[in-house]
Amino acid sequence: MSMPAATETTTHGSRNDREIVDAKVIVTCPGRNFVTLKITTRSGVYGLGDATLNGRELAVASYLQEHVVPNLIGRDAGRIEDMWQFLHRGAYWRRGPVTMSAIAAVDVTLWDILGKMANLPVYQLLGGRSREGALVYGHANGRDIAEASDAVGRFIEQGFLAVRAQCGVPGVKKAYGISNAKGYEPAESELPLETVWNTPRYLEVVPQLFEQLRKDHGNQVELLHDVHHRLTPIEAARLARDLEPYRLFWLEDSTPAENQKSFELIRRHSVTALAVGEVFNSIWDCKHLIENQLIDYIRTTIVHGGGITHVRRLADFAALYQVRTGFHGATDLSPVTMGAALHFDTWVPNFGIQEYMFHTEETDAVFPHDYVLRAGRLHVGDTPGIGVDIDEKLAAKYPYAPKQLPIARLEDGSMWDW
């Protein structure tokens, strides 16, 4: 008995329905800058993708507008894999944060469109739920240890099960991760703010911080810390060893990872869990780290890692080596990326944790979304697609405002890793 010939219906979108007829780049600054791609099909269904690259937003916006958008018109929005290959393999100059952020914007947009046409949330397209909610961690910080401990306590009171803790370093002004009254946003000036760094003082205060946090808050809460690439491998090994008694969930970005083999030294000296990768753009950036089990969590985010299509491959590769995901999720990523990330988190078998910082009320108004925080976990809704929209009229009221990330120097004036 032969199967009847396949027919395309408007329920799932015919090729004509899926034809891309418009693509535009929206730049808005409701508290901070975001770059959003909106693709519309002939059927009127549209999707959104985030292309924000903190401090270099207009570079990605220009790449999209000048080089990518002209190639989208007339193409089939349902050919997600082919589109990814076209934008990646078809570009002689591959990879890098600008290119991969632009590709990610297109990719997430197409997944959003597919979900809407199929009348399914994206996590269902990926294979359905692996969990009911994504464990998240918040950012607690203070000018000194006591203030940081108080901040951790407030997150626990809000129901957070995991908290990243940072504190000021004695004698160091503008230490990384320490917020002002309006919350932590490092890109605060049109030209890079120059900060000063002192490694010995940092290495002395961090173990003291976590010793106090365990005394004040016990062992039930998961604690995390971000070094932000500021240590050499041997310094990172020392810190990881010194923090072992306080059982960190992870030590993040302990040393720059351009030389992936540098993590071998840290592993030889400590069993503290290691996370890295928010600045990675492809699977090749972490190949050695993963296949040699030098890290425990991969932080590469959907928006800077080429979208759902590419990060899915990265996550599957990581799963072979018992490495779990831990997506970057600071406020330099719009709710569009958070929505896409949470659909991915809901599905991916080797999920670890999701970073989560509260967006401003203005940002939440520009990007209405269906994900909600309950008892320390973020939950996605069942809205078809990624469950995030954009109010374009409201977005237009917040024009782009030039902002760059800080830089760091040592006390003798030498440039250092910020």
From TrEMBL:
Gene: manD
GO MF assignments: mannonate dehydratase activity
Taxonomic superkingdom: Bacteria
Enzyme class: lyase
Residues spanning the signal sequence: none
SMART domains (alphabetical): MR_MLE (SM00922)
Occurrences of domain Mandelate racemase/muconate lactonizing enzyme C-terminal (ranges): 145-273
This protein's name: D-mannonate dehydratase ManD
NCBIfam families, alphabetized: ManoateDhtManD, PRK15072.1
Positions of transmembrane segments: none
Keyword terms: Lyase
Enzyme nomenclature, EC number: 4.2.1.8
